[in-house]
Amino acid sequence: MSLTVADVAASREFFHTHLGYQVAMAADGFASLTRGDAAADIVLLQCGSEVLPPEQRDQQATGLIFALTVTGIEAEERRLREAGAPITMPLREEPWGERLFQLTDPNGVVVQFVEWATQEEPTQGD
Q1: What single Pfam family name could you report for this chain, choosing any that match (predicted)?
Q2: If pLDDT is split at 50, 70 and 90, which confidence band does 75 have?
């Protein structure tokens, strides 16, 4: 996933500090982040960078929710809260069984943690 942001260093530090991503490669206005257990790497590009096509240079990552599925969402939310992470939507459960909370990075990138509530199977004779 590639995100165009105003401050690459701020997002790089956020993803490293709170989500455990490591810098695989970095240069001025660019960082590639990886995490061994993640399904996708994150590339951060400086807004206005000439490596982007002209029509994309001034766009920034907005309206995007970067969703991560987790197990043990209460413990993850507690860990992040205790670490001082910017939790912008507290843990809640939706009527359809989705449990979630959100963080927002310094560039406005929303990171959502999701866990599906388990449905209890009916026992025989119910």
Answers
A1: Glyoxalase
A2: very high
How far apart CA 11 and CA 31 sit, in angstroms, is 9
Could you tell me the CATH superfamily of domain 2-116?
2,3-Dihydroxybiphenyl 1,2-Dioxygenase, domain 1 (3.10.180.10)
Q: What is the Cα gyration radius of the chain?
A: 17
- List, in order, residues 6 or more apart from 11 with CB less than 8 Å away: 3, 5, 31, 44, 105, 106, 107, 109
Q: Which candidate, 51, 39, 50, 47, places its Cα nearest to that of 3?
A: 47
Coil, helix or strand at residue 54: helix
Taking the whole predicted model, whether its pTM rises above 0.85 is answered as no
Alpha carbons 30 and 124: distance in angstroms, whole number: 57
* Locus of tokens 């810098």: 23
